[in-house]
Each structure stands twice: as C-alpha cells, then as structure tokens.
Specification:
By secondary structure, the chain is of the alpha+beta class. It is built from four helices and eight strands. Pfam families: SIMPL.
Length: about 230
C-alpha cells in the first residue's frame, strides 16, 4: 500500500512539475543577421580538355598543355599550397556513325588567388597556355569566420528586438533565453554583381579577356530563440 502511495505521489509531483513548466510565459521568434563583404580572394576551377583518335597521343597532348599552365602559374609567384590538380580523366567515346573510338582527356586545376589585382593577368595567361574551359569562379573572403561571428550576433540582436516589439504592447518584458537554435545554411560563397561563369568553352584564337566586377557577398546567420516573459 505504501509503495502504491509513493508511486502515485511521484506521478502527481511529475505531472505538477510538467504543468508548471508548460505554464511559463514565453515567446519564440526568429532572427537574421547579414554581413555584406567585399571579397579579397577568388577560387578558380580551370580545365584542359583534349580529344583525339589515339589514347596515348591525347593524354600526351593534355599533359604537355598542363605542364605549360603550371609553369605559367609558377611565374605568377603563387604559393604552391594555393593550387592543386582537382581531377584527371581519360575516357573512350564511341562514334556510332564512324564505328570507332575517340578519346577525351581532361585535367582540372583548382587555383586560390589571394591578390585580386592579378586576376586578369592570371585568367588571360591560363587561356593562352592551353586552358579551354573555365568551370567555376568563386569570390570569397579570407576572414569568413570573423564575419560569420558578426552575422550570428546580429541575428541574436534582431531576435531580441522582435520579441521586445511584440510584448511592448502587453506591459511585459523579455527575460532570459530558454532555447536557441541555429538555422543557418552552409555558407557557399557567391558574388552578387559578378556575372557568374557557367562552364565556358573558349579557344586560343578567340580567347575572351575577363573583366573583374566582384561586388559584394552576403554572409548570413539565422536563429530561432525562445525568451521567458517577465
């Protein structure tokens, strides 16, 4: 009997405690923080693509062009840690009309350029030395973590300001935060005004010269916050 009374007593206390928690007045709001930054570096994905009837010759031509590209990059005095081969491929392609195999060789190099004043020179040189495809150009900031921290703080400030606006007409005050959830998306640096380059085919004879208009990038943070009302 005593055991049953003890169990009932614990259940009653648990239910009372749960009800007490549920009855705590609170407000839940979202906040967004946004920091606009002028990029100070750029990542370039550049590819050499070579086609032909003989696999060995196609690979050799592709390798020779990439060697020339790497020599040019070294002359640009880039840090060796700032460029690397991203992928290499040699694939057969069957021509059903001619009933024979052709071969397609590609090499892609990823370059991190930390001095944007060298951008035009680098892009022109890459094309001149054999690059015939620019796969991607991404402008970014070297101080990303610093700006992400600023964006998070701004998001929290906006959330609190929203909560204060809502309860200001109720004669209540915003108290301490009960829960905080980070809803930020993974940051993928993209320029705003820059004309984003999709995969672009170029030839040595008509190689376009890129112009630079980096604009700004947005670094954003989003939070959900529940505040106690006093």
């Amino acid at each position: 009997m005593k055991k049953a009374l003890l169990i009932l007593s614990i259940m009653f206390m648990t239910m009372s405690y749960a009800q007490e928690i549920k009855q705590v007045p609170q407000i839940s709001v979202n906040g967004e923080g946004k920091v606009k930054v002028v990029p100070d570096q750029v990542t370039i994905l550049a590819t050499i693509e070579t086609k032909g009837n003989n696999a060995k010759d196609v690979k050799k031509q592709n390798d020779e062009k990439m060697e020339a590209v790497l020599r040019f990059i070294k002359k640009m005095n880039l840090d060796p840690a700032d460029y690397k081969t991203q992928r290499v491929s040699l694939n057969p392609q069957y021509d059903y009309e001619k009933k024979k195999h052709n071969y397609n060789a590609t090499q892609t190099i990823e370059i991190l350029l930390k001095d944007l004043s060298k951008y035009d020179e680098l892009m022109e040189g890459l094309v001149d030395e054999g690059i015939n495809r620019i796969d991607n150009v991404i402008f970014q900031s070297s101080k990303l973590e610093q700006y992400q921290s600023e964006a998070r703080k701004l998001a929290m400030k906006e959330a609190k300001l929203k909560a204060e606006d809502y309860v200001s007409v109720l004669g209540q005050k915003v108290g301490r935060a009960m829960t905080i959830s980070d809803n930020s998306q993974t940051y993928y640096p993209q320029p705003i005004r820059y004309a984003a380059m999709k995969t672009m085919e170029v030839s040595d004879a008509t190689a376009p010269r890129e112009t630079l208009a980096v604009g700004e990038i947005n670094i954003t943070s989003n939070v959900s916050v529940s505040f106690i009302l006093e």
